[in-house]
DNA sequence: GATAATGTTCGATC
DNA sequence: AGATCGAACATTAT
């Protein structure tokens, strides 16, 4: 579920709630979400203090004072929740007990998410990060989007989802960005004019920052690091609105759903060309 | 019971 | 070499 705005929302919550706090013990309820053995995780984290919380694309990095970092990818249904000692949740897979009370819980209904240990100074070299392009919120990311788009004829929607081009955009925001930029999702990336490319650049930045301001999109599963839903769902212009009226002022179009690479794309054929 | 779901990865095939 | 596609992973809600 989580794309860049959701992961950034969680990052901010964890930074605020966990920085400087120490992990007392770790309980693993589902070892398959770990890339290392449960015992290595427990040994490495017992007594470790959180020294920083970073994000690259959809990947979260918890830095500890031990020169090790925990790399977390939430995939489809992962959640990270800072909570008190009570309230057991149904899909909790890993619990990090904090030395001063309370805990950080990793919950994941489908258990597709992954937690992985990396050395902090080599975080960028870990295989989970090495294949990622620059973060979609950075100038370098937006620059790279335009450069790669001009060279490839893959549909522009598919390019936006390609994490090796730029990291962070997922299926919801790809549709939203193309709607704001007024571009049809099946347009070959290298067919975009320079004015269309700058519209794409502006739309990417605007959609992501607006979604972060609203603390992410909750359709079903997403919760912030403190357990609240995000508020951006009510501002979605196309995603999940198949058959409904286009919201663009003066546009009489109807929102369509179309499959691209086995994933739904929502768009308005009237105002997106 | 079939279908779809905010994601990535692997292997096969151009 | 690079691009592209389908299947796989695991589980729930409709």
- Mean of residue pLDDT values: 94
Find the count of extended strands (DSSP E, 2+ residues).
10
Number of helices: 7
Strand content: 15-25%
Overall radius of gyration: 20 Å
Q: For the report, how would you describe the main beta sheet?
A: 4 strands, antiparallel
Strand order of the largest sheet: 1-6-7-5
Order of helices and strands: HEHEEEEEEEHHHHHEE
Proportion of helical residues: 25-40%
The structure class reads alpha+beta
CA distance, first residue to last residue: 28 Å
Overall outline: elongated
Regions with little confidence, pLDDT below 50 for 5+ residues: none
Can you characterise this structure?
With 273 residues, this protein is of the alpha+beta class. It has helices at 4-18, 38-45, 127-130, 139-151, 156-161, 171-180, 194-213; strands spanning 23-28, 50-56, 59-64, 68-73, 78-83, 92-98, 103-108, 114-119, 255-260, 263-268. The chain has a four-stranded antiparallel beta sheet, with helices on one face. A four-stranded antiparallel beta sheet has the order 2-3-4-8, covered by helices on one side. It has a two-stranded antiparallel ribbon with strand order 9-10. Helix 1 runs parallel beside helix 7, helix 4 (139-151) runs antiparallel to helix 7 (194-213) and helix 6 crosses helix 7. The longest helix is centred in the C-terminal third of the chain and has 20 residues, at 194-213. The mean pLDDT is 94. The structure holds a DNA duplex (14 and 14 nucleotides).
């Amino acid at each position: 579920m989580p794309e860049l705005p959701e992961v950034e929302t969680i990052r901010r919550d964890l930074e605020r709630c966990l920085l400087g706090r120490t992990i007392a013990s770790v309980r693993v309820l589902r070892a398959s979400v770990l890339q290392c053995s449960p015992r290595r995780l427990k040994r490495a984290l017992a007594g470790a203090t959180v020294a920083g919380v970073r994000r690259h694309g959809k990947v979260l990095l918890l830095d500890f004072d031990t020169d090790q970092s925990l790399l977390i990818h939430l995939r489809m249904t992962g959640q990270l929740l800072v909570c008190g000692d009570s309230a057991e949740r149904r899909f909790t897979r890993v619990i990090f007990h904090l030395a001063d009370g309370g805990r950080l819980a990793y919950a994941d209904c489908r258990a597709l998410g992954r937690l992985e240990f990396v050395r902090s100074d080599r975080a960028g070299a870990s295989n989970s990060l090495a294949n990622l392009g620059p973060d979609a919120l950075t100038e370098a990311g937006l620059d790279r989007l335009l450069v790669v788009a001009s060279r490839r004829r893959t549909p522009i929607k598919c390019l936006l989802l390609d994490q090796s081009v730029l990291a962070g955009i997922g299926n919801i925001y790809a549709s939203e960005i193309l709607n704001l930029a007024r571009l049809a999702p099946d347009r070959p990336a290298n067919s975009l004019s320079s004015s269309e490319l700058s519209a794409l650049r502006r739309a990417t930045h605007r959609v992501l920052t607006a979604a972060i301001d609203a603390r992410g999109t909750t359709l079903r599963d997403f919760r912030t690091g403190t357990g609240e839903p995000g508020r951006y769902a009510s501002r979605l212009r196309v995603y999940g609105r198949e058959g409904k009226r286009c919201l663009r002022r003066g546009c009489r179009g109807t929102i369509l759903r179309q499959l691209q690479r086995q994933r739904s794309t929502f768009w308005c054929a009237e105002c997106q060309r």
